[in-house]
Write a structure and sequence with these properties.
Belongs to the major facilitator superfamily. Keywords: Membrane, Transmembrane, Transmembrane helix, Transport. The chain has helices spanning 5-19, 21-24, 26-29, 38-43, 46-89, 94-126, 131-158, 164-176, 200-217, 220-227, 232-255, 263-280, 287-301, 304-315, 320-345, 351-358, 362-372, 375-378. The protein is an all-alpha fold. The chain is globular.
């Protein structure tokens, strides 16, 4: 195994487990002693947008000063601090807990942005001959962690208390810093010099995709266990199966050799699968049907983000970390919109109609996938900007 690969893929697992903590706590935060309403719960995701923007703007500049390891270490420390804040929130009253979780999501956004910028770039460099597969598998590891993390959290909740899981993750983030970090890649541009207009279509694709992912992932638990009135375990399982379907799709497509898979066609078909799930889920009532539908939604969401990342880095090799940071920032902004935005929006529309209208996101997603995967954009030959 190449130096630093263990740190890269371990960080991916920890990032996925940490990222899903607030969605996994959805049914707990809606109940006493917290009793957050839909708007208050949705607003918890807003600081992630701020953290994501900060990290997207800073990733290239930090890389130019501290190198890839500096970006990685700052991200790990931010994630550890976020998990410690979540632990503190478990032992406070409702008002203080809300403030602590808001601070937690801000640090999580920063940590997610910096860590993912570092590890996606490192994966593309460690396995340069198969960069798309390496990035896809890395994001499969992230998705696998998001799939099992809600179940682990539920296990802690029913035994010693839910705070045990974020506490364990916080310690793991600190221990990760002891692993060998991937060697620095080639010199890159950072700061304002690294920004290119040609990055924007990739960021736009990820932003819209992440709104869809956030709409599924952040509200699966609530839709199943609150809106449909099904057991809390069913809500946790729906969330786990969504991420599990995403993980399975990424592993399957990541390991298939390039000669056997036309990746561009899969990239173009993915938004149509998301649209079908948005249309189907509001029509379902039973737990089994909803669980299957959220699994299918995860499969449909599986490859759009890692393929966008791989195509974007390939098109901007001299600004790889800045490109990765921008796309991770776009992911977090979209997740924040899909998570935070759906809270206040439910004062006007029920979640079912919101899902139905969300199927329209497939239109720009298909066009952007077609545009970004053209050889002129996907292989580093970009227009003058």
């Amino acid at each position: 195994m190449k130096r630093g690969a263990a740190a890269v893929y371990t960080a991916g697992f920890l990032q996925g487990a940490a990222f899903v903590m607030v969605p996994a706590l959805g049914h707990i935060l809606h109940q006493a002693p917290y009793a957050f309403g839909s708007s208050a719960y949705g607003f918890l995701y807003f600081p992630e947008i701020i953290g994501a923007i900060l990290s997207a703007l800073a990733a290239g500049s930090i890389h130019s000063r501290l190198g890839g390891s500096g970006v990685f270490r700052l991200g790990a420390l931010s994630n550890a601090a976020a998990m410690f804040l979540l632990v503190a929130a478990a032992f406070t009253d409702s008002g203080l807990a809300y403030g602590l979780i808001l601070a937690e999501t801000l640090l999580l956004g920063i940590g997610f942005g910096l860590t993912n910028a570092a590890i996606n770039r490192s994966a593309s460099l460690l396995f340069a001959g198969a960069a798309t597969a390496a990035v896809t598998i890395l994001n499969a590891v992230i998705g696998g962690a998001t799939a099992i993390s809600p179940l682990i959290l539920e296990g802690f909740h029913s035994s010693i208390g839910w705070a045990g899981w974020p506490a364990l993750l916080a310690l793991a983030w600190l221990a990760l810093l002891l692993l060998p970090i991937a060697a620095a890649g080639p010199a890159e541009l950072g700061g304002l010099r690294a920004w290119r207009r040609s990055m924007l279509p990739f960021a736009g694709a990820v932003l819209i995709y992440a709104i869809c992912e956030g709409s599924f992932g952040s509200w699966a638990n609530v839709l199943v266990s609150v809106n449909r009135g099904l057991p809390a375990a069913s809500g946790a399982l729906a969330l786990a199966l969504f991420w599990g379907g995403m993980t399975a799709a990424r592993f399957a497509l990541g390991f298939i050799p390039n000669r056997l898979l036309h990746r561009r066609i899969v990239y173009l078909l993915a938004p149509l699968g998301m649209a079908a799930c948005f249309l189907l889920i509001p029509q379902l009532i039973t737990a089994s049907a909803l669980l299957m539908a959220f699994t299918a939604a995860g499969v449909a969401c599986g490859i759009y983000y890692p393929y966008s990342m791989a195509y974007g880095i390939a098109a901007h090799p001299e600004e790889g970390t800045q490109m990765a940071g921008l796309l991770v920032g776009a992911l977090m902004v979209g997740e924040g919109i899909g998570s935070f935005g759906l809270g206040p929006l439910q004062d006007l529309l029920r979640l079912g109609p919101i899902y139905t209208l969300s199927a329209l996101w497939a239109i720009p997603l298909v066009w952007l996938a077609w545009r970004n995967s053209q050889p002129a954009h996907a292989q580093g030959t970009r227009p003058h900007d």
